[in-house]
Amino acid sequence: MQIEGVIVSPTDVFCDALIVGVFDEIVEIDAMSQALGKQLTSLIDSMLRDQPECCQFGESSIIHYATEVGAKRVILMGLGKKDEFTLDKVREISAIAIRAGKKLSSKTVATVVFNCKNASLSEVTQAIVQGTVLGSYEFNHYKTDNKDNKVDKLIVVGKDLPRAAVLAQDFKEAKIIADSVNLARDLTNHPSSYMKPSQMALVARDIAIQTGLEINVMDKANMENHKMNALLSVAQGSDIPPNLITLKYNGNPQSKELIAFIGKGITFDSGGISLKPSEKMGDMKGDMAGGAAVLGAMRAIGYLQPKVNIVALIPCSENMPSGRAFKPGHVITSMSGKTIEIISTDAEGRLLLVDAITYARKIGATKIIDIATLTGACVVALGNVASGLVSNHDDWSQEILKASMQTGEKMWLMPCYEEYLSQIKSDIADLKNSGGRMAGTITAGIFIKQFVGDLPWVHIDIAGTSDRDKTKGYNLKGATGVGARTLIQLALNLAENAS
Questions:
Q1: Most exposed: 24, 117, 302, 484, by fewest CB within 10 Å?
Q2: Exposed, middle or buried, 140 (CB in 10 Å: 0-12/13-18/19+)?
């Protein structure tokens, strides 16, 4: 999609559809009249009187004819209460609006810049672009009757827009971020017959070539040399070989800080010997959403070039039952040397993560974030609204929560009390890989915590937020790419703090 800004009156833009937002206060029409002209303002005024519900958030109404306007149609978008209109709602309304334009077969859509309280013009225009690109996402790779019904061009209109060079840079950055999230969505939406560990590695190589990141893909033999037995135990039941992808970005060579992003890359999770029910098992193609989020984030970081050092690790494997598969009751020795009693082979993601964390520490990581579709317990606790956080460090967890608030990716910090540790203590090994149903998200996080040492660490459980069963705002049905924008924003924040 081509995106440009024009510093003119909205009525002077020739397009297939013009997006105009209205708040749930009639006074807004007076402020709008000068920009939109008397006839269109009068039409909107009449519509609000006759259909007051049209200004409720997310409602769209079509005005087909207005002689003063260069647009063929006007899409009137309800913005709700002005005091409740946030940057994330700018993204949401932009996504809803672009889909309304698409339904009208519009090829060129223009949008008036929305008035968002406590946000700069730059932030609003970037949110419009992000919401538009995220909201117009489609996954049609396997549809043979796919019709080209896409919006080709978005025009952002406003008389107070910044100069062209600044606007172009804002648009570029916003589109990089949204395209990177859409990459993560693509990776997660692909079936596991295609998105194998080897394909994850090919995508990582493409990102490295495009952005200049350093890359290393560790194969099974190399992992055996590093004694990554936790990861290898999960992989041994499948005929598909595992790998460990490492991408490194050196944005601040003068700094000793190295942030590790670690994403779970289970490309299909059958549960192994502890087999999952067959119903909805196909959804387990998305058990690599954490790894996809990390790859999407690294793509954006590579293009945006923030002044920060980041190493990304994505341990990739299938979890399958076979005569070779690891079994409940096994004891394995992780790369760290800690021994783990296997209670359930369906608690496999944490086994990949702990070997990756140990390796991250070995190569010099100073702070760690891992992100994973880890526990059904997180879905029970937080539903599909918020991701769960477990952390050993207040300041570090607050950095991630700040980034999540900026992006609208809701996250909630869970307790990390030492009392929970007793649930994962084993009678015959150092740890058990499952503490049972009670506090499952917390005990899974505390299991991972045993491998981070004294490094600041945050675990993000996206089991409930990695996909949607219906479209809402800029999150469409299917994979959401959740976590990618928070990781990108965190990198930008850290770079800003360092400057």
A1: 117
A2: exposed
Helix (H, G, I), strand (E, B) or coil at 352: helix
pLDDT tens, position by position, 75-88? 999 999 999 999 99
pLDDT at 117 over 90: no
Res 218: pLDDT: 98
Structural domains in the chain, sorted by start:
2-141+148-162 (3.40.220.10), 190-498 (3.40.630.10)
Residue 424 and residue 443 in contact, taking contact as beta carbons nearer than 8 Å: yes
In this structure, are residues 341 and 331 in contact, taking their beta carbons and an 8 Å threshold?
A: yes
Helix (H) or strand (E) holding 479: strand 478-479
Known catalytic residue at 276: yes
Q: Which of 220, 276, 338, 472 is catalytic?
A: 276
The phi and psi torsions of 87 (rounded to 5 degrees) equal -60, -35
What length does the chain have?
A: 499
Across 213-372, where does the E strand assignment appear? 214-218, 243-250, 259-263, 265-269, 309-319, 331-333, 339-341, 367-372
Q: Which residues contact 447 (CB under 8 A, 6 or more apart)?
A: 350, 354, 424, 431, 433, 435
**Chain CA centroid to CA 172, Å:** 18
Instruction: Evaluate if residue 499 carries a pLDDT over 80.
Output: no
Q: Pick the catalytic residue from 285, 350, 432, 449.
A: 350
Q: Is 350 noted as a catalytic residue in this protein? A: yes
Residue 146 has pLDDT above 80, yes or no: no
